[in-house]
Amino acid sequence: MNTISHWINGQTVAESDGARFGDVVNPATGVNSGRVALASADRSREAITAAAEAFPAWRDTSLTKRTSIMFAFRELLNARKEELAAIITAEHGKVLSDALGEVSRGLEVVELCCNISYLLKGGHSENASTGIDVHSVRQPVGVSAIISPFNFPAMVPLWFFPVAIATGNTVVLKPSEKDPSTANWLAELWKEAGLPDGVFNVLHGDKEAVDTLLTDPQVDSVSFVGSTPIAKYIYETASAHGKRVQALGGAKNHMLVLPDADLDITADSAVNAGYGAAGERCMAISVVVAVDAIADELVAKIAERTRGLKVGDGTRDSDMGPLITVAHRDKVAGYIDAGVESGAELVLDGRTTSPNADSDAAFLNPTLFDRVTPDMSIYTDEIFGPVLVVVRVPSYEEGLALINANPYGNGTAIFTNDGGAARKFENEVQVGMVGVNVPIPVPVAHFSFGGWKNSLFGDTHAYGAEGVHFFTRGKVITKRWLDPSHGGINLGFPTNS
Ligand code: NAD
């Protein structure tokens, strides 16, 4: 039995057979590929303490040294990314090209961090007041807990830990227990790159491990990505325990299609963004908002393209893999049942499948609903599966109002050739990441990733300048070199001259 264990202080820490374990299953084959340790509170504290003890030396390691380790990590990850993609596909199920895509997007953040010295440069004002110079620095926060979801086992942790480590923090990563092997692979890569032991630790587990991270006084910051109810819980609990928190939640991303859009390219984009990774992306398009004038034609084009998708094992010639588990597959199928019962028009029914895979238990085919209304659960809920719904609206105004009334605000897109309409949308839409003719507008690494409303609790987005800000604290130093003119008693509040 392959057991995936914690990585603490630069080595694997195995659990005894009396400990708790979870099953790790390849959803494309149904084969149980191993078991993952689920940490107790004591084990969790051990990982946190390792990070806390490694912090002082890592904080004081020179920028040059930290940068050279980051470069070495970048080179190793880039050289071996296919190996990592295969691990992701074997546990998550997404097709290999998609797994490689997520590694590449994560790699971008590592590349950003190879330039961390520039991002950490403070400011300096000479003679800010007479004889007084002022400068600012940003210093690491301490121990960073990173808690990540199943859907991007590499990319989401990579949004955070390169920034945390490059800025001088130490890390405890708690990956999803559904696809845990990626985290250990990354830990071993760090070791090879020369990262000192204890700077990057992996703690496997569930609520018990997470709750310890949220409450242990040695943890200074918490970065979370996952579903909205858990994100809210993480934000409230960790904040109440005095930590800085960024908790990214779920999504329901709308794509507004105006009558002047190129409908062929728009339909391609809707299919790619709706069904890629079987809809298990936080930036997936799950709602197409079609202006009435083009709705019939657009739905026909989406349906035609969707019928051609190849569903199967991600290691074979497939466009779309399975859902993460059979239980999740059944939950998504339940939404399709509910959509039919609520009167939506089922254009493509994904409940019948014949995937190119050894087991069909976790598979659904792409599903398309038309004439969906905002009261239906297929509209209100984040389904997180290959179910695309079309809501028809009379015009831009109603489409915008629909998007802005939605409680989620992660990503959105407008498809149009009208620059004025696009500019109006950019300005008016209440969503954190906006695409103009770009269906999945995940920001590049030197910008920052984050949604609004129920898609983010806290105020700091991931990576880019906001990521650097999150993992550092500002300090301003005001100084003078004393001479006799500085003497004398004056209890007034210091003013500048
Ligand atoms: P999840 O919320 O179930 O789990 C996320 C993490 O929280 C995991 O590490 C899990 O072990 C832990 N967890 C689960 N239940 C917990 C509990 N009761 N107490 C403490 N910890 C708990 O999410 P998931 O199913 O792994 O991932 C899918 C969700 O993540 C979707 O809602 C998706 O939209 C969201 N997501 C959001 C973004 C974003 O950028 N906003 C990115 C990726 C995924």
UniProtKB/TrEMBL annotation:
<feature type="domain" description="Aldehyde dehydrogenase">
    <location>
        <begin position="18"/>
        <end position="476"/>
    </location>
</feature>
<dbReference type="InterPro" id="IPR015590">
    <property type="entry name" value="Aldehyde_DH_dom"/>
</dbReference>
<protein>
    <recommendedName>
        <fullName>methylmalonate-semialdehyde dehydrogenase (CoA acylating)</fullName>
        <ecNumber>1.2.1.27</ecNumber>
    </recommendedName>
</protein>
<dbReference type="InterPro" id="IPR010061">
    <property type="entry name" value="MeMal-semiAld_DH"/>
</dbReference>
<dbReference type="GO" id="GO:0004491">
    <property type="term" value="F:methylmalonate-semialdehyde dehydrogenase (acylating, NAD) activity"/>
</dbReference>
<dbReference type="GO" id="GO:0006210">
    <property type="term" value="P:thymine catabolic process"/>
</dbReference>
<keyword id="KW-0520">NAD</keyword>
<dbReference type="Pfam" id="PF00171">
    <property type="entry name" value="Aldedh"/>
</dbReference>
<keyword id="KW-0560">Oxidoreductase</keyword>
<dbReference type="GO" id="GO:0006574">
    <property type="term" value="P:L-valine catabolic process"/>
</dbReference>
<dbReference type="InterPro" id="IPR016162">
    <property type="entry name" value="Ald_DH_N"/>
</dbReference>
<dbReference type="InterPro" id="IPR016160">
    <property type="entry name" value="Ald_DH_CS_CYS"/>
</dbReference>
<dbReference type="InterPro" id="IPR016163">
    <property type="entry name" value="Ald_DH_C"/>
</dbReference>
<dbReference type="InterPro" id="IPR016161">
    <property type="entry name" value="Ald_DH/histidinol_DH"/>
</dbReference>
